[in-house]
Amino acid sequence: MTARILCVEDNPQNMRLVRKLLRNNYTLLEAEDGLTGLRLAEEEIPDLILMDINLPDIDGLEVTRRIKAQKHLAHIPIIALTANAMYGDEEKYLAGGCDGYIAKPVMRDKLFSAIETFLNEKATGSSQS
Ligand code: MN
To answer: How many angstroms separate the alpha carbon of residue 126 from the centre of ligand 1?
Structure first.
């Protein structure tokens, strides 16, 4: 089955790029702000989430906290996508509950290898339980 990926991203240009990169390999769900992202995560329970950090309403770390606080959603891998690539930021995102981190601009190979790593980890984990 095709993996379902939720992308929370308010910049239309970045969303278009993600859509273009992923559309042949995954089913993409899209949210343009944090609360919509949270609602879609709750309703759709995607296999993985790509999370922009700077969003117009609540930021991506807050969305991440609210998702990870829910037992039935906590397993979903969340990869932070952000331009805030400053020293210490990766630690901040990981401490905030994100499972991985990709600095913008998003490159195809980096994005795919991160997604596949997390999807495979998840598949391995569930086959062992
Ligand atoms: Mn943004």
So the answer is: 32
Task: Give 90 Cα–ligand 1 centroid separation in angstroms.
Answer: 17
* C-alpha of residue 8 to centroid of ligand 1, in Å: 9
- Ligand 1 mean position, distance from CA 9 (Å): 6
Q: What is the pLDDT along the chain (129 residues), one digit of tens a residue?
A: 899 999 999 999 999 999 999 999 999 999 999 999 999 999 999 999 999 999 999 999 999 999 999 999 999 999 999 776 667 777 888 888 999 989 888 899 999 999 999 999 877 765 444
Structure tokens that stand for 105 in this block = 């601009």
Alpha helices (H) along the chain: 12-22, 34-44, 60-68, 89-95, 108-128
In the reported structure, the alpha carbon of residue 49 is separated from the centroid of ligand 1 by a whole-number distance in angstroms of 15
Q: pTM for the complete prediction?
A: 0.91
